[in-house]
Amino acid sequence: MSTKLVFSNAAIENLNDSNASLEAIGEAMNDQYDEVANPNGIMNLGIAVNKLQEEIILKKLNSINTVTKKDLEYNTAFGTETLRTNISNMINKNFNPVNPVNKDDIVVTNGATSALDKLASVLCNPGEAILISSPYYSVFETDLNLVAKAVVHNVPVPVSEIQSPVQVRYYQKKLDELNGKGITTKAIVVCNPHNPTGKCYSRAAVEAILEFANRNKLFVIMDEIYALSVFRNTESASDLKNDKIKHAGDLNDAVGTYSDNKYEFESVLSFENLSELIDPSLVIVLHGLSKDFCLNGFRVGWVVSPFNKQVVTALCKIAMFSYQAGLVDSIISKLLGDTEFLDSFNVILRKNLLESYERTTTYLNNKNIKYVPSQAGHFLWINIQPLMIRWKNNNLRKNQFRITSPSELTFDDDMEMWLSVIKDARIYYTAGVNFKSDEPGWIRLIFSQPWDFLKKGLDRLFDYIEKESNSIPQIKSKI
């Protein structure tokens, strides 16, 4: 029987969309490396998980994990009053909002992924555009499109301009292009701190984007999921340690010339001049547990909309489809209610991220590998073009010729090397082609892992790339 007679147009579109990136993520998650139980498993250097505080968070969660009769009942679909109150208290303490956020400004969802999906359903009709500057977190595309059928249009912004207000010219160019095609644009998603570069936007850059959105009546979804994971600020991150740190991430002539401009993270909620920049009703904030609290698997995120109660109401209407388990709501309410623990945890979180960043960048410096210095998050945006050229020349197909310049690399090379590394080296990283990089040869590397594991993975990755010959899988689909 033809699927056209059975399924919706949306389902048919999803069924026909083969995505090698999502398939590879699934393989990496289902066959994870374990030194004892699965030594031939895939070492994950690509999925943004912070494993540096696992024992601390496990001990805390196990101490508050009790099941009561209330947990057996239906929960409040958009988050219990206790949970939303504790989230608002956490935001008011750490995000410095001009006006305190209250519980009624918050809608809890089963993860930030679900929050984006629900926001796209509320804000967009199928086919309408959402702008995101690239390189960007690739799953934004599926988050916003699979159900709501909003369409992400990437706005290529050079790495050197990610923190600059001049990037607005690229948004304007894309908007003009879409207008010329008769496509309605409804929103911009801004990930601050930025994924995958780990940069904090300058205040001037955010203000310029807000003013641009206001001129064009676009919603601005500020994804601040890494807000508490900023480990290098404007002055120095050395206050997180007792001794002075020499930042390995400050690039020198031997490594490259990518800017190490550092800006303080400022939540858009803290902008005292917000109403002078944009109609505040167009501004929405996202946050959640996965990154800053190292709880990816708990699937709890939240939308903060203090300036537009209709957004909250519309999300609450469909909240039954993004329900959290009552037990999870109860545990997280207790976790976020323990402010003394959270204060201590946040200090340890930043200290551990900084130490791992220092070790990783020292390793990369010693191998003369270029990268964009990061300030926040779990990742580094790394340029491996010289290694990709070597890999390409060691693995030429019939009728292919040796190359000597990065300009000769293709995104097919990017994809082929990535799939080859996963299959044979048993290493998962994120290829730049999946993040809409403007050129082949970039990868996102996750450094928020115990050093013994990370170093083993890095050694295995680079040793494999530099081998004389590797197998090259056929590309099943283009990203």
UniProtKB/TrEMBL annotation:
The keyword Transferase does not apply. InterPro entries: Aminotransferase_I/II_large (IPR004839), Ethylene_sulfur-biosynth (IPR050478), PyrdxlP-dep_Trfase (IPR015424), PyrdxlP-dep_Trfase_major (IPR015421), PyrdxlP-dep_Trfase_small (IPR015422). It comes from Smittium culicis. The keyword Cell membrane does not apply. GO terms for molecular function: pyridoxal phosphate binding; transaminase activity. Residues 42-447 form the Aminotransferase class I/classII large domain. The lineage of its organism: Eukaryota, Fungi, Fungi incertae sedis, Zoopagomycota, Kickxellomycotina. Pfam families: Aminotran_1_2. Keywords: Pyridoxal phosphate. Transmembrane segments: none annotated. This is 1-aminocyclopropane-1-carboxylate synthase-like protein 1. One of its GO terms (biological process) is amino acid metabolic process. It comes from the Eukaryota.
